[in-house]
Amino acid sequence: MNYGKALVACGAILVASAAIGVTAAPVHARSPGSVVIVAHSDNFVVRRVSYADLNIASEPGVRDLTHRVGWAVVDVCNDATAAPAMSFELRNCKTKAWGAARPQISLAVQRAHEMASTGTSSIAAAAITITVPQ
Protein backbone atom coordinates (compact mmCIF):
# COMPACT_ATOMS: atom_id res chain seq x y z
CA MET A 1 0.00 0.00 0.00
CA ASN A 2 2.36 2.67 -1.26
CA TYR A 3 -0.36 5.33 -1.19
CA GLY A 4 -0.87 4.74 2.53
CA LYS A 5 2.85 4.97 3.21
CA ALA A 6 3.03 8.22 1.26
CA LEU A 7 0.18 9.62 3.37
CA VAL A 8 1.96 8.58 6.54
CA ALA A 9 5.17 10.23 5.34
CA CYS A 10 3.28 13.44 4.52
CA GLY A 11 1.63 13.31 7.94
CA ALA A 12 4.99 12.90 9.62
CA ILE A 13 6.35 15.90 7.75
CA LEU A 14 3.30 17.93 8.75
CA VAL A 15 3.66 16.96 12.42
CA ALA A 16 7.39 17.73 12.38
CA SER A 17 6.72 21.11 10.78
CA ALA A 18 4.07 21.90 13.36
CA ALA A 19 6.41 20.88 16.17
CA ILE A 20 9.13 23.16 14.87
CA GLY A 21 6.66 26.02 14.50
CA VAL A 22 5.29 25.55 18.00
CA THR A 23 8.70 25.35 19.64
CA ALA A 24 10.00 28.32 17.65
CA ALA A 25 7.16 30.63 18.76
CA PRO A 26 7.77 32.70 21.88
CA VAL A 27 5.94 31.43 24.95
CA HIS A 28 3.94 34.64 25.38
CA ALA A 29 2.63 34.33 21.79
CA ARG A 30 1.01 30.95 22.39
CA SER A 31 -2.68 30.87 23.03
CA PRO A 32 -4.33 28.39 25.40
CA GLY A 33 -5.27 26.36 22.29
CA SER A 34 -1.69 25.82 21.07
CA VAL A 35 -0.84 22.69 19.14
CA VAL A 36 0.11 19.72 21.28
CA ILE A 37 2.11 16.95 19.65
CA VAL A 38 1.32 13.52 21.09
CA ALA A 39 3.65 10.60 20.37
CA HIS A 40 2.17 7.17 19.81
CA SER A 41 3.96 3.88 20.23
CA ASP A 42 4.75 1.60 17.32
CA ASN A 43 1.77 -0.54 18.34
CA PHE A 44 -0.70 1.93 16.84
CA VAL A 45 -1.64 3.00 13.34
CA VAL A 46 -2.45 6.71 13.16
CA ARG A 47 -4.02 8.89 10.48
CA ARG A 48 -4.51 12.63 10.76
CA VAL A 49 -7.17 14.28 8.64
CA SER A 50 -6.66 17.97 8.01
CA TYR A 51 -9.61 20.24 7.38
CA ALA A 52 -7.67 23.49 7.12
CA ASP A 53 -8.81 23.94 3.52
CA LEU A 54 -12.50 23.32 4.27
CA ASN A 55 -15.23 25.65 5.47
CA ILE A 56 -16.77 23.30 8.00
CA ALA A 57 -19.21 25.97 9.14
CA SER A 58 -21.14 24.95 6.00
CA GLU A 59 -22.86 21.64 5.20
CA PRO A 60 -20.73 20.96 2.09
CA GLY A 61 -17.58 21.42 4.19
CA VAL A 62 -18.83 19.04 6.89
CA ARG A 63 -19.76 16.52 4.19
CA ASP A 64 -16.26 16.77 2.67
CA LEU A 65 -14.65 16.34 6.10
CA THR A 66 -16.84 13.32 6.81
CA HIS A 67 -15.77 11.75 3.51
CA ARG A 68 -12.10 12.37 4.32
CA VAL A 69 -12.52 10.80 7.75
CA GLY A 70 -14.30 7.84 6.16
CA TRP A 71 -11.38 7.20 3.82
CA ALA A 72 -8.93 7.55 6.71
CA VAL A 73 -10.95 5.07 8.81
CA VAL A 74 -10.88 2.52 6.00
CA ASP A 75 -7.17 3.08 5.43
CA VAL A 76 -6.14 2.91 9.09
CA CYS A 77 -8.23 -0.21 9.75
CA ASN A 78 -6.93 -1.95 6.61
CA ASP A 79 -3.36 -1.28 7.78
CA ALA A 80 -4.03 -2.21 11.40
CA THR A 81 -5.98 -5.42 10.93
CA ALA A 82 -4.91 -6.92 7.58
CA ALA A 83 -8.29 -8.66 7.79
CA PRO A 84 -10.59 -9.63 4.90
CA ALA A 85 -13.00 -6.92 3.74
CA MET A 86 -16.13 -8.32 5.39
CA SER A 87 -14.54 -9.65 8.58
CA PHE A 88 -15.82 -8.92 12.08
CA GLU A 89 -12.37 -7.64 13.06
CA LEU A 90 -12.37 -5.02 10.30
CA ARG A 91 -15.96 -3.92 11.01
CA ASN A 92 -15.15 -3.67 14.73
CA CYS A 93 -12.08 -1.55 13.97
CA LYS A 94 -14.12 0.82 11.80
CA THR A 95 -16.83 1.12 14.45
CA LYS A 96 -14.28 2.05 17.12
CA ALA A 97 -12.43 4.44 14.81
CA TRP A 98 -15.67 6.24 13.89
CA GLY A 99 -16.61 6.30 17.58
CA ALA A 100 -13.40 8.22 18.30
CA ALA A 101 -13.63 10.44 15.21
CA ARG A 102 -17.24 11.65 15.58
CA PRO A 103 -16.66 13.69 18.77
CA GLN A 104 -13.61 15.30 17.14
CA ILE A 105 -15.68 16.21 14.08
CA SER A 106 -18.40 17.67 16.32
CA LEU A 107 -15.86 19.83 18.18
CA ALA A 108 -14.30 21.00 14.92
CA VAL A 109 -17.71 21.98 13.54
CA GLN A 110 -18.64 23.70 16.81
CA ARG A 111 -15.37 25.67 16.65
CA ALA A 112 -16.04 26.65 13.02
CA HIS A 113 -19.52 27.92 13.92
CA GLU A 114 -18.15 29.90 16.89
CA MET A 115 -15.43 31.41 14.70
CA ALA A 116 -17.97 32.31 12.01
CA SER A 117 -20.37 33.98 14.44
CA THR A 118 -18.04 35.64 16.97
CA GLY A 119 -14.57 35.54 15.42
CA THR A 120 -13.21 33.57 18.35
CA SER A 121 -13.51 30.14 19.97
CA SER A 122 -12.27 28.47 23.13
CA ILE A 123 -11.86 25.21 21.20
CA ALA A 124 -8.36 24.61 19.84
CA ALA A 125 -7.88 24.08 16.12
CA ALA A 126 -6.63 20.60 15.28
CA ALA A 127 -6.74 17.83 12.73
CA ILE A 128 -8.98 14.81 13.23
CA THR A 129 -6.77 12.02 14.58
CA ILE A 130 -7.69 8.39 14.11
CA THR A 131 -5.65 5.93 16.17
CA VAL A 132 -6.16 2.16 16.29
CA PRO A 133 -4.04 -0.60 17.82
CA GLN A 134 -2.03 -2.66 15.37
What is the percentage of strand-forming residues?
5-15%
Topology, number of strands: 2
How many domains is the backbone divided into? Answer: 1
Mean pLDDT: 76
Determine the N-to-C terminus distance: 16 Å
Order of helices and strands: HEHHE
**pLDDT under 50 segments (min length 5)?**
1-39
Please compute the radius of gyration using only Cα atoms. Answer: 16 Å
**Structural class, from helix and strand content?**
mainly alpha
Tell me the major beta sheet. Answer: 2 strands, antiparallel
What strand line-up does the widest sheet have?
A: 1-2
List the total number of helices.
Answer: 3
Question: What's the layout of helices and strands?
Answer:
Elements: H1 2-24, E1 44-49, H2 59-81, H3 88-118, E2 128-133
Antiparallel strand pairs: 1-2
In short:
By secondary structure, the protein is mainly alpha-helical. It has helices at residues 2-24, 59-81, 88-118, and strands spanning 44-49, 128-133.
Please give a structural write-up.
The protein is mainly alpha-helical and 134 residues long. It has one domain. The chain is 57% helix and 9% strand. It has three helices and two strands. It has helices spanning 2-24, 59-81, 88-118; strands spanning 44-49, 128-133. It has a two-stranded antiparallel ribbon. Helix 2 packs antiparallel against helix 3. The longest helix is centred in the last third of the chain and has 31 residues, at 88-118.
List keywords for this structure.
134 residues, mainly alpha, two-stranded antiparallel sheet, 3 helices, 2 strands, 57% helix, 9% strand, disordered N terminus
